[in-house]
Amino acid sequence: MELPHLHHLNPYLQVNLPPPPEASCERLPQWTHDETREFLAIRAQLDKTFSETKRNKPLWEAISSMLQQRGFFRTPDQCKSKWKNLVTRFKGSGTTVEGEANRQFPFYEEMRSIFAERIQRGKGVVQVQVKESEEEEQEDEGQEAEGRMKRRKVERKKKKKKSGGEEVEDALREFMRRQLEMEARWVEAAEAREAERRATEEEWRSAMVGLREERMQMERRWREQEEERRAREEARAERRHALVMALLDKIAQDL
């Protein structure tokens, strides 16, 4: 679903938000599933812009405006708060199996798609940087090869005074020396690229481990709170039962 006016969007865009149909002090209703899906569709299209700018306020205003055009009246602050809540629930649902996660969090697939595309964009940036580095190395090697060819021409003129056997022997030694130098530079460049790749991969793994630990901590806190709530409910039920039994005993004694 393409948004026709998104190509005008930039970090300094001033969005004129249409007022709600009725100003009221009453609390707005909760987000419906249809409203949330419309919100996530718009947020997914703007996710790249969010990552490229530091001023997100105009973007939240734009999302609020587009939602209002579709009949959902939400302020920029409400849209921002809704996104934070969805991210929190998505992190909490990541430690369960996929079917159970979909039942507990119905927007799991939409959120997973947004974060997967974000990670893919990050990989693309790394690949472009590696490619640019390789092109620079190839250009430097080309310039070095041109310089070596010029030096060879000068050396060949000098070697014309030598005998045929000495000239061939010297040429072979020079060729082998140049060949070894080129191989050494190629090995160094390959090792540098491999080290960069490993560092990037290690950084990504560390980020995933941190995210997994954060999800586990959130799930542990939720379970502890749930156990405390159940314990309180059981205590209240026992007190009610004791009170009812005491009343029944008193009634029986009065009779």
Automatic annotation (TrEMBL):
<dbReference type="GO" id="GO:0006355">
    <property type="term" value="P:regulation of DNA-templated transcription"/>
</dbReference>
<feature type="compositionally biased region" description="Acidic residues">
    <location>
        <begin position="133"/>
        <end position="144"/>
    </location>
</feature>
<keyword id="KW-0238">DNA-binding</keyword>
<keyword id="KW-0804">Transcription</keyword>
<feature type="compositionally biased region" description="Basic residues">
    <location>
        <begin position="149"/>
        <end position="162"/>
    </location>
</feature>
<dbReference type="InterPro" id="IPR044822">
    <property type="entry name" value="Myb_DNA-bind_4"/>
</dbReference>
<feature type="domain" description="Myb-like">
    <location>
        <begin position="31"/>
        <end position="87"/>
    </location>
</feature>
<keyword id="KW-0175">Coiled coil</keyword>
<dbReference type="GO" id="GO:0003677">
    <property type="term" value="F:DNA binding"/>
</dbReference>
<protein>
    <submittedName>
        <fullName>Trihelix transcription factor GT-3b-like</fullName>
    </submittedName>
</protein>
<dbReference type="Pfam" id="PF13837">
    <property type="entry name" value="Myb_DNA-bind_4"/>
</dbReference>
<keyword id="KW-0539">Nucleus</keyword>
<dbReference type="InterPro" id="IPR001005">
    <property type="entry name" value="SANT/Myb"/>
</dbReference>
<feature type="coiled-coil region">
    <location>
        <begin position="201"/>
        <end position="228"/>
    </location>
</feature>
<dbReference type="GO" id="GO:0005634">
    <property type="term" value="C:nucleus"/>
</dbReference>
<feature type="region of interest" description="Disordered">
    <location>
        <begin position="129"/>
        <end position="169"/>
    </location>
</feature>
<keyword id="KW-0805">Transcription regulation</keyword>
